[in-house]
Design goal:
The protein is built from 5 helices and 6 strands; from the N terminus they run βαββααβαββα. The chain is an alpha/beta fold.
Length: 140
């Protein structure tokens, strides 16, 4: 019988997360993405009762470029997705993969019990890590 790998989200997550204010322009968001080499940014909460959002290149493409809108006149809050899926750092990545797949997403933020942003985890990173560990455990 093959043993299933036990891998926690915290082992796979990226701790380096770039954020942006919801009132920033899309141009500011694109400049940050370019500067850091990221294809998405986490949109900060306005306060502790608010939720995090996300803005990705696909949002800019779908909602600004294809509509021929100005990068300077559209604000992040107008095109961001909010709320976004979050996972706990101690969650088994098999469950995180299942959750992200269920919503047809490619990433989730990682929050601690106090809803503090700890990192981000991608479907790609989790699937690759799972496959590598599973093969190692089963001697392949």
């Amino acid at each position: 019988m093959k043993q299933e790998p036990k891998i926690k989200v915290r082992e796979v997550m990226t701790r380096e997360v770039r954020t942006i204010d919801s009132l920033a322009s899309v141009r500011e968001a694109m400049n940050k993405m370019k500067e850091y080499g990221f294809s998405s940014l986490i949109v900060d909460r306005r306060d502790t009762d608010d939720e995090y959002g996300v803005i990705a290149i696909t949002d800019i493409s779908d909602q600004v470029v294809t509509k021929n809108l100005s990068f300077d006149r559209v604000n992040v809050y107008e095109i961001m997705r909010k709320p976004i899926i979050s996972v706990h750092p101690e969650m088994d990545i098999r469950y995180a993969i299942n959750l992200i797949n269920r919503f047809k997403l490619s990433r989730a933020i990682v929050l601690d019990g106090d809803q503090n942003l700890l990192g981000i985890v991608t479907l790609r990173d989790m699937v690759l890590k799972y496959a590598i560990v599973r093969e190692d455990q089963n001697g392949q």
